[in-house]
Amino acid sequence: MTLQISDWRLLKLTLDQVGPFQDAIQTFNFRGIASSEDPDPAPASLYMLLAKNGHGKTTVLESIHGLFGLMANPPIGRFADVAHKGQAQVDIRAEWTIDGKTQTTLLSIWTGSPFYLVDWTDDLESAQVQQWATLNLTQANGVISFGRGTNDLGRLLFEEIRAAQGSAPTELFGLSQELPTVILFPADRRLVAPSEHRVIERPKDWGYQPAQTFASDGPVWSESIDNLLIWLEWLDDGRLAELIAYLNAEIFAEDRKAIRPPRRAELKTFVATPTGEHALEQLSHGERALLQLYARTACHMTRNTILLVDEVDTHLHSKWMNRLLLALKQLLVKNAQLSVIFTTHNRELMKVFDHQAHETGIVKGGYLIEDELS
CA 107, CA 286: separation in Å to the nearest integer? Predict the structure, then answer.
């Protein structure tokens, strides 16, 4: 059987005894914000999770990422640790086309329990789906196996993802791969100077993966933005020029700066300024954080991507924050199957997010983990 996926939408995450959620089962509904005009909104494409530090917002992102990470080979993420405790389930709605037949499908992936945390048996109609794909993943000593409740549809997705891992992208913005991926940007996503041991080599995690993490960039050469740009320059297929144009437009449009194509002789990339030039690692914290997020998203997303950004305002003052949200919204409009979930503890960001303002092509959602925020 061949599987094609489209219209990928995150519906729900359920956690039991994971991280700070120890006292009761905690459910996060990722639908848009209901209103009198739209009492039953579609799943959100842009979702804000607001909470004080230590109240579980990072756990939410790591749990979504970790459930998909169990499909990686080897498994990655918080649930790949044999010492992990608790149960987690993620539910996604999508269009699945199998051997030419398309059906709206609910996918449930869970771990830590022989039984699903959310039983959709009697709710498929209300979820507006025609079939239910179930995938219970357990792991021991780094080996993933199917747990009780896994059905043929769940196995099919797992096998398709495993078979595609490592396949190199041929276009930016996910146009060459439609299998799903989850990209996690932890709070620390700085760009630091890479190793002086510079060679032309395939970047780490260049091929398709169901779950990816891009934290502080460097100092390992294979994980650096410098190496990514050098690799694209070596491929010489037009993607480097497209990526640099995108980065310059989103980061430096108002600042009279510009990333220049890498110098192959030096294996290094520079930024032109009104007074000269400097290396990438000499950008400001805000510029470096944006460079990491924009470049990795453009190069590693697929047609069906969930983008997770922890502490979205880290390293960013208000100008950069406004610019980042605008860029994310533009990505969502251009890529209808992309979803973005970001966390913050900053109430001021609610004004920038402006959940009541209607924006074409974007469905906004949000969740307040607890009421008393400083």
Answer: 37
